[in-house]
Amino acid sequence: MKKYELTCNDDNILKTINEDLIGRNQKLMNLIKLLNVLDKNFILSIDGDWGVGKTFFVKQLKYICDNTNEMDFLEKFNNEITKEFAEKYIAIYYNAWENDSHDDALESLIYNILNEYPKYKKNVSNPEELYGMAIPILKNVVEKLTCGFVTKDCFDKFKTFQDLADSIITIEEKIEALNKLFNLILGHEKRLLLIVDELDRCKPDFAIKMLEVLKHFCNNDKITILVVTNNVQLTYTINNYYGNGFNGYAYLNRIYDSVITLGVDNIDNYVRKVFNIKNRRNLPDDVSYLLFKYFKFSYRECNKYMSMYNLVKKYTEYTDDFNKEKYLFASCVIMPMAIALKIHNLDEYNKFIEGNGENIISDLLNKLDLLDDDVLFESWFRNLLNIGAEENLERAFIKLYKETITRQKGYDIFPFFDAISMLGNLIDLS
Fold first, then answer.
1. How far apart, in whole angstroms, are the C-alpha atoms of residue 266 and residue 22?
2. pLDDT per residue over 97-138, tens digit each?
3. Which ranges of 278-330 would DSSP assign to H, the alpha helix?
4. HSE-up of 126 (CA within 13 Å, CB side)?
């Protein structure tokens, strides 16, 4: 089964910048301009639903920061602005979800920053002093995070601040040690661009602790923080954590200085390039595209749909030519609707495969012109159903839908339930 989800490696990040399939380069440029003018501590949220490409967006940003002086993609951007960005910032990416098993959010964050330190070693004239400053923050966690490969005793050779390490217990002292650490890493010229991703997927207690760390500990004027998250989901997490009546939205507003929202910006170009849906005059392709718009799918949901559809499509291709016309409506309309519903809403999907999908069908038909007035779907559906302009399309559509999902036996019955069983459904096929 072909998978359409791109891995966030350097090759794919560079490819997506060069191709700019969904028109994000302009947003990257605007964000870089904003980051260039910041000279104080600033927390910016990159907000968006799951699957709209937030992680790719911020990794593109980090890639530009790390590679501007070496890359040939600069013709797509303003050279002076991107060079200013690269010279101003050290960009460090931290995936909160991958680290939410750690007990202490502050220690986890600093440990991951120090993991990135070797890339920026040229900025630090005294590495022993750097690790000496890290001792107050990390001594109690380093052995756990390195699975025993690095023990607390490894720090003993660095005597700087050693005596202080055992006595640091107050928040003020931790903040002071942390600021010294940041200042040493960054030097006089650089700012830290700290990208904290996937916070909405974390365990509630870790997500709350991380937000508090970012607000109260990472308040150095040399730090800009990008919190990459789905703020709707994060608000639910905060509300559930603090209990009924707590205003999670107001809580986040106190954390963030500003919010940038990402959405599904260019679905047309995306489906043409990624799924090879080009001419928009092919029934299976167009129905898929129609469903993307109807359900307001994210890029990730489109990818998942196409992988599932291609799997089922191959499974049903054994049908003989004699029955091919008979199967067209079931294979090109009913089956795609079932797959899309499985991704969009499991309850609605279960209703649909149980024969209770009339409301979905009715709503879809009523919105055909609003969703796409360039393709004559109503005409196509009438031809497939073999009905005239005077006959009721919705009634004929639902009638064939009911026949398709009815468990029947015979060699010329469309294998609807056999096909969707390939998608992991627990279905009695007897």
1. 5
2. 988 887 788 878 877 777 675 555 555 555 566 556 555 555
3. 283-294, 299-315, 324-329
4. 13
**Domain chopping of the chain, boundaries:** 10-124+187-261, 267-421
Residue (of 6, 94, 10, 115) closest to 60 by Cα position: 10
C-alpha torsion 220→221→223→225, nearest 10? 90
Taken in order 341, 344, 348, 351, the sign of the CA dihedral is positive
CA distance 329 to 350: 20
Task: Name the CA dihedral angle for 312, 313, 317, 321, rounded to a multiple of 10 degrees.
Answer: 130
Output the pLDDT for position 265: 80
Contact (Cβ atoms closer than 8 angstroms) between residue 224 and residue 89? yes
Residue 159 confidence class, pLDDT cut points 50, 70, 90: very low
Residue owning tokens 């995936």:
95
Sign of CA dihedral 306, 46, 92, 158: negative
Confidence tier at 195 by pLDDT (50, 70, 90): very high
Alpha carbon dihedral 268, 269, 275, 276, in 10-degree steps, equals 110
Q: Which residues contact 75 (CB under 8 A, 6 or more apart)?
A: none
**Which of 317, 314, 315, 312 has its CA nearest to residue 338?**
312
Q: Which of 335, 339, 337, 304 is nearest to 317 (CA)?
A: 335
Q: Give the residue with greater pLDDT, 135 vs 198.
A: 198
95: confidence class by pLDDT, cuts 50, 70, 90: very high
CA distance 293 to 370: 10
- Asked if 349 and 338 touch (Cβ cutoff 8 Å), the reply is yes
Produce one character per residue of 130-166: b if its CB has 16 or more CB atoms within 10 Å, e if not: bbbbbbbbbbebbbebeeeeeeeeebeebeebeeebe
The CATH label, of 3.90.25, 1.10.10, 3.40.50, 3.30.750, for the domain at 10-124+187-261 is 3.40.50
C-beta separation of 125 from 110 below 8 A: no
Query: Six-digit token pair at 423?
Result: 């998608």
For 6, 123, 160, 203, 288, the CA distances from 126, given in Å and listed in that order, are 40, 9, 11, 37, 59
